[in-house]
Specification:
With 480 residues, this protein is of the alpha/beta class. Helices cover 36% and strands 11% of the residues. The strands form 3 sheets. A 5-stranded mixed beta sheet has the order 2-1-3-4-5, with no helix packed on it. A 5-stranded mixed beta sheet has the order 8-9-10-11-12. A two-stranded antiparallel ribbon has the order 6-7. Strand 10 (313-320) and strand 11 form a beta hairpin. The termini are far apart. Residues 11-21 have a biased composition (Polar residues). Belongs to the peptidase C48 family. Residues 276-421 form the Ubiquitin-like protease family profile domain.
Length: 480
């Protein structure tokens, strides 16, 4: 808040040497402070500056000090610096960046990190995550310390992966923001356009159409499996996990934190010939990779989603850590006992989860150790549909929030032609949501290709789509 002054130097009058060059500034000699012109300002031996009431420099500094520390009565509104208003957006962004670094709203702030000093951590712990968009400077509980001033984005002092934002500002969060895809509405034209380009088989199968800043990507042929009557590739489920994890930044504060793992976590190695220790180590390794940049301790996680692929069938395990439960969500309507249907897989995963929770001193470890896996009996489960299990799983991941069946707002009709229509619609909508997600760095490239495709005459496009419809299954079989 002060001003930079001219440099000063200490003069040793006996030797005539100084601690710096002879540039102008304040000189100290025999405990006495002298100005640029050699005039004595005041003594450094404890004498009060009041001894020099007529000195102009003393007067100026006295006025500045009085202005800076002048007490304001309770009835007065202090005049605020324009700096707060001019830098409001940057302050907010810096707070979000620092508090979202491997953290979530309901977790305590770390004491320090590469980008966050101890002073900053203390500041956030005392003041909380306030929205600087809505809090005027006059209402600030305390000034932001200098260590909180936004760092220069041009600095190259350290290397790290691309920044992947996790938390949104409070004013972007609301229980009224509907993040789940609405299947009661039709498919908009822009969604159909993207789907037509993907299903036209234009371009190379290995073209990257989805890529996030943390290095996760998907190729064109993965997205082509959204074509109706095709079975989804497991990698599409991994893309969906990535999208849903990113979208958790928009959840309402009262919503449980949901963390979505990748299919690698439950691969067949869990039932392989590896030793028990090797299987558990591999599981923990894949778990940490799946929740990288998330809450690795699981202490603040409400629901942990584990998509499973077995014998070309995709279903879901959900670990509820807030109100301990182990839920199996499977669209296939079977009457088999859980052990007959899923073997020892639920018990293996439960054991490894418990071991990991113990290693993290998770407060719900003991309660979770007593739960038994059970299967949800949803009315929309199917008997004859053996193609859309991946789409069902994506919908279950998107809409399950824990609680009773009445709270499971999935929107599916019972097995029927009407349900088939919903599933076809969801394929297009989910494809569009993944491709046009805000963190897909390939989004503009894809939309450019979509525009180029739709500049082709209508008749020619129809011919291309008809040919692709006949060839798409053969093309995908080469990658399955």
């Amino acid at each position: 808040m002060g001003e930079l002054q001219e440099p000063f130097q200490v003069i040793n009058e006996s030797s005539g040497t100084s601690n710096g060059n002879d540039a102008g500034g304040v000189k100290i000699s025999d405990g006495r402070c002298k100005g640029n012109q050699g005039e004595e300002i005041f003594s450094g031996s404890g004498e009060s500056v009041e001894k020099y009431p007529e000195n102009q420099l003393v007067k100026e500094w006295k006025n500045k000090v009085n202005d800076l520390f002048n007490e304001v009565s309770a009835s007065e509104e202090p005049e605020q610096s324009q700096w707060w208003y001019d830098n409001e957006a940057e302050i907010e962004r810096t707070l979000i960046l620092a508090t979202s670094h491997k953290q979530f709203d309901n977790s305590p702030i770390a004491n320090c990190s590469i980008q966050m000093s101890k002073e900053y951590a203390d500041f956030v712990n005392r003041s909380g995550r306030k929205s600087f968009q809505t809090t005027p400077p006059s209402k600030m509980e305390m000034p932001i310390p200098l260590s909180v001033v936004p760092f220069n984005n041009e600095e190259k002092g350290f290397n790290r992966r691309g920044y992947m934002p996790r938390m949104k500002s409070e004013y972007l969060k609301s229980p009224y923001i509907i993040r789940a895809v609405d299947i009661t509405k039709g498919v908009p034209r822009q969604e159909k356009r993207v789907a037509e380009w993907i299903f036209s088989l234009q371009g190379e199968p290995n073209d990257i159409v989805f890529h996030t800043l943390d290095g996760f990507s998907a190729e064109r042929f993965h997205m082509e499996s959204f074509f109706p009557t095709c079975e989804l590739f497991g990698h599409v489920i991994d893309c969906w996990s990535q999208v849903l994890n990113l979208d958790e930044s928009k959840r309402a504060p009262e919503s449980p934190l949901r963390v979505y793992c990748k299919t690698d976590l439950t691969n067949s190695y869990l039932e392989s010939d590896l030793t028990e220790s090797q299987r558990k180590d591999k599981f923990i390794e894949n778990l940490l990779l799946s929740i990288e940049d998330m809450d690795a301790s699981l202490r603040y996680v409400g629901l942990l989603f584990l998509p499973v692929i077995r014998s070309f069938h995709i279903f879901l395990f959900v670990i509820n850590l807030q109100h301990p439960e182990f839920v199996i969500i499977d669209n296939n309507k079977v009457d088999d006992h859980i052990d007959e249907r899923y073997g020892q897989l639920p018990q293996i995963i439960k054991k490894y989860i418990i071991d990991y929770l113990k290693s993290q001193n998770h407060p719900k470890t003991e309660m979770f150790s007593h739960v038994m896996p059970y299967r949800l009996e949803m009315p929309w489960r199917t008997i004859n549909n053996h193609i859309d299990c991946g789409v069902f799983t994506m919908r279950h991941m998107e809409t399950y929030m824990g609680g009773s069946m009445n709270e499971f707002k999935v929107g599916f009709k019972n097995e029927s032609s009407a349900q088939d229509d919903q599933l076809v619609k969801l394929r297009t909508k989910y494809l569009y949501k993944i491709i046009t997600h805000e963190y897909n760095v390939q989004k503009d490239y894809v939309l450019q290709k979509v525009d180029e495709f739709h500049k082709i005459p209508s008749r020619q496009r129809s011919e291309l789509l008809a040919i692709a419809k006949e060839q798409i299954h053969t093309r995908l079989d080469d990658f399955s």
